[in-house]
Design a protein that fits this description.
The structure holds 2 protein chains of 2 kinds. Chain A is mostly helical. Chain A has 15 helices and 4 strands. In chain A, helix 3 runs antiparallel to helix 10 and helix 4 crosses helix 10. In chain B, a hairpin with a 2-residue loop joins strand 9 and strand 10. The radius of gyration of chain B is 18 Å and the shape is globular. The chains are: A mainly alpha, B alpha/beta. At the A-B interface, helix 8 and helix 9 of A face helix 2, helix 3 and helix 4 of B.
């Protein structure tokens, strides 16, 4: 127990303190410190599609899937920031998927029209669907969102609308791989940095405040229901886009769009990556999706190993990988001897 | 508009599953007046506040604000009309710096609708306001997360949160509870200033000595009923009031 009598002290690095302020622009070193992590991530994502010859089409697809899961996770994180825990991200995904399927099949519109249209229509549909339950909080809201995709699946099965059990196939494809990969990577980056910026504004501050103490926000004169509705709409946009995009990619819209993996994978990514900062959940998706693919050679053991890895991450880094890395990047830790009396004394007794 | 009372409650009732928390309470409040609401624990003081501000819907009776019926109004609409309330248990936005806590009321539809409310740097306005409330501008206190502030500062923050809304009617629910004597002594002038500025003030309070320094008139509640109303010294001489306070400590000197 060499830590007895010492306590861990965390201090912001000098460069972090400087770059928090106007001095951020005072030297290349500080500019780099501030921008390098995000520039590196952006550059890696933008270069990756060009490396098709090196990585092969398979890993290109994995990154594409990771992007869709990241979009759903971003949507989850936004709802979480407003205090709404969603267990049914598949609603957003499915709504986008079916909307684009419907527009393509019935009107024969090209993907460039149907994808934006389905994103908007799917987001509005989800917002209307969730509007009545927005006054619920915590576990109640979570359970309703969990049930929604199941409900929609049954509705489509029973009424045989939108292709029923069979779904809608033969939808027009997107362009060739580098371009569609670029499309989703761009949208994802816009969402990550757009959401981060949104939550830095006063409007975002109100959204965050709703999660911390909704009664205080009410007492400040905000219509909570209306603000939650706006949050759900904003969160539904990336989710519906992911659904619409993947539908055209696979040229098929059907019941799998509401499957539970589109609810669970974003949730797992968000928890492993670290909710609250948007970059974290995207990082989580880019860790978990490739991990899941890399484990395919283990056959039936894949899910077991995958689950163990997820559990280990959650136990070791409950704050999330991103938040851990960010802390290490911003702060130094050191052990300092504790003052006599108070805590120090107690630690000494415990140590001896 | 100026002639009538700013707030009028008529036969307000609230039942919580068979328990009558507020029982046919009526009162009037003139513009610029300061009113204290006192009573033993569980006498329905906070419920009365919740009824007025729309956080709880009344089971019976009516409330008029500036002559307009606002019975059962949504809380955010009550704020739009110019009411601001504090909570008995202040729960600031713990993870935000203290001044950011004020940006939320400063961003509210009420404040933005006021003249000039859309302009200016809200952070700067917030820090000004906090300085008014005794957060030293040059110290790091306004920039600390609200979660690490001492209780006295949290209460001041709660008061600042109300004032940021530029209200006509300020309702303070047990602002002094849990504060030390010196903390109360620091906040009391702030409240006296609110009253001097001509804002209408309702205070629910257990600390009678401090309360009576501020208010013109008190209402005493017991078991949800209004048992007395009038000037502080008159009310405290009332035998029924003395009886309702029996067993609890009364510190009273007029």
């Amino acid at each position: 127990m060499n830590e007895a009598g010492y306590r861990r002290e965390r201090l912001d690095r000098g460069i972090k303190v400087r770059t928090d302020d106007i001095f951020a622009l005072s030297s290349y070193r500080e500019i780099l410190y501030l921008t390098l992590p995000r520039l590196a991530a952006i550059a890696a994502l933008l270069v990756f599609p060009l490396l098709k010859g090196v990585t092969g089409i398979y890993w290109q697809n994995v990154v594409l899937t990771a992007c869709t899961i990241a979009l759903l996770a971003l949507s989850w994180d936004l709802l979480h920031s407003v205090g709404l825990v969603s267990l049914g991200q598949a609603i957003f995904f499915g709504a986008g998927a079916y909307a684009t399927g419907f527009f393509s099949q019935h009107f024969g519109w090209p993907p460039l029209v149907t994808i934006p249209l389905a994103t908007a229509v799917g987001a509005i549909f989800c917002t209307v669907l969730l509007y009545p339950v927005l006054r619920l909080r915590g576990i109640y809201f979570a359970l309703i969102t969990f049930a929604m995709p199941l409900l929609l699946t049954r509705v489509i099965e029973a009424t045989k609308i939108l292709g029923g059990n069979v779904g809608m196939s033969g939808l027009p494809p997107l362009s060739d791989t580098p371009l569609d990969l670029y499309l989703i990577i761009t949208v994802m980056l816009i969402c990550v940095f757009g959401f981060r910026r949104l939550f830095d504004t006063d409007y975002g501050l109100v959204l965050k405040a709703i999660r911390e103490n909704d009664r205080s926000v009410m007492a400040a004169g905000f219509d909570l229901q209306w603000y939650r509705t706006q949050a759900v709409f904003i969160a539904a946009i990336p989710g519906a886009f992911a659904g619409a995009f993947l539908t055209h990619y696979y040229q098929f819209a059907g019941l799998p769009a509401f499957s539970i993996e589109y609810s669970i994978l974003p949730l797992a990514s968000a928890i492993v990556g670290g909710p609250g900062s948007f970059s974290g959940v995207a990082l989580g998706a880019f860790m978990l999706v490739p991990l899941s693919e890399a484990l395919r050679s283990f056959g039936n053991l894949r899910v077991v190993i995958y689950s163990i890895v997820v559990v280990v991450f959650i136990v070791i880094l409950p704050e999330g990988v991103f938040n851990y890395l960010q802390r290490k990047y911003y702060q130094i830790e050191r052990l300092v001897p504790m003052e006599e009396g108070g805590n120090g004394q107690r630690a000494n007794i415990a140590g001896s | 508009m100026d002639s009538g009372p700013i707030l009028r409650a008529v036969d307000l009732c609230k039942d919580f599953g068979g328990i009558r928390a507020v029982d046919r309470v009526s009162f009037e409040l003139q513009k610029g007046e300061t009113l204290g609401i006192i009573g033993p624990n569980g006498s329905g003081k906070s419920t009365l506040i919740n009824l007025i501000t729309g956080f709880v819907k009344p089971s019976g009776g009516r409330i008029f604000y500036q002559g307009r019926d606002i019975t059962g109004i949504a809380p955010h609409k009550a704020v739009m009309l110019g009411m601001a309330r504090s909570f008995q248990m202040p729960r600031p936005f713990y993870n935000m710096p203290a001044y950011k806590n004020l940006v939320i009321p400063l961003f509210s539809p009420r404040t933005r609708r006021l003249k000039g409310g859309r302009y200016g740097d809200r952070d700067e306005v917030a820090i000004h306001l906090l300085e008014d409330m005794g957060f030293e501008r040059d110290s790091n206190v306004p920039y600390q997360p609200a979660g690490v502030l001492p209780h006295g500062y949290v209460k001041r923050l709660e008061l600042a949160r109300c004032l940021a809304l530029e209200p006509d009617l300020v309702i303070l629910d047990e602002l002094f509870s849990g504060m030390s004597m010196s903390e109360v002594a620091g906040v009391l002038p702030l409240i006296e200033r609110i009253a001097d500025e001509g804002k209408t003030l309702i205070m629910v309070e257990h600390r009678l000595r401090e309360l009576f320094r501020v208010v013109d008139r008190v209402i005493v509640l017991n078991f949800g009923r209004k048992i007395a109303e009038g000037a502080p010294d008159v009310v405290m001489a009332n035998p029924e009031v003395k009886e309702s306070y029996l067993g609890s400590e009364v510190e009273f000197s007029a």
